[in-house]
Amino acid sequence: MAGSTVTPAPARVTATPNEPLRLVVTADRGGELHAHGTQPELEVPVTAGQPTTAEFLAPAQPGLYEIELHDPDLLLFQLAVQ
């Protein structure tokens, strides 16, 4: 993430329930990585200029979940659990 631009552009990623996932985020400013629907809720601090790795399980319930940054609020991708 640079400024308000997410690269690659936000898209939909498919996973199965409880599938292990790894997400690496590098941002030009600090914030918080948040994954909706995970148990417990995934909230990981992001430090400017440092790659941040988050490992988590896809939600157990099928559905569409947003993975985003807070502060600034930016959608990274939608997680489609099928």
Any overview of this molecule?
The chain has no helices and seven strands. It has strands at 12-15, 20-25, 31-35, 42-46, 52-57, 63-70, 74-81. A hairpin with a 6-residue loop joins strand 3 (31-35) and strand 4 (42-46).
Number of strands: 7
The share of residues in extended strands comes to: over 45%
Let me know the largest β-sheet.
5 strands, mixed
Query: Uncertain runs with pLDDT below 50, 5 residues or more?
Result: none
Approximate shape? globular
Which percent bin holds the helix content?
Answer: under 10%
Task: Offer a few descriptive terms.
single chain; 82 residues; mainly beta; globular
Question: Gist?
Answer:
The protein has 82 residues and is mostly beta strands. The chain has strands at 12-15, 20-25, 31-35, 42-46, 52-57, 63-70, 74-81.
How does the SSE layout of this entry go?
Blueprint: E1 12-15, E2 20-25, E3 31-35, E4 42-46, E5 52-57, E6 63-70, E7 74-81
Parallel strand pairs: 1-7
Antiparallel strand pairs: 2-5, 3-4, 3-6, 6-7
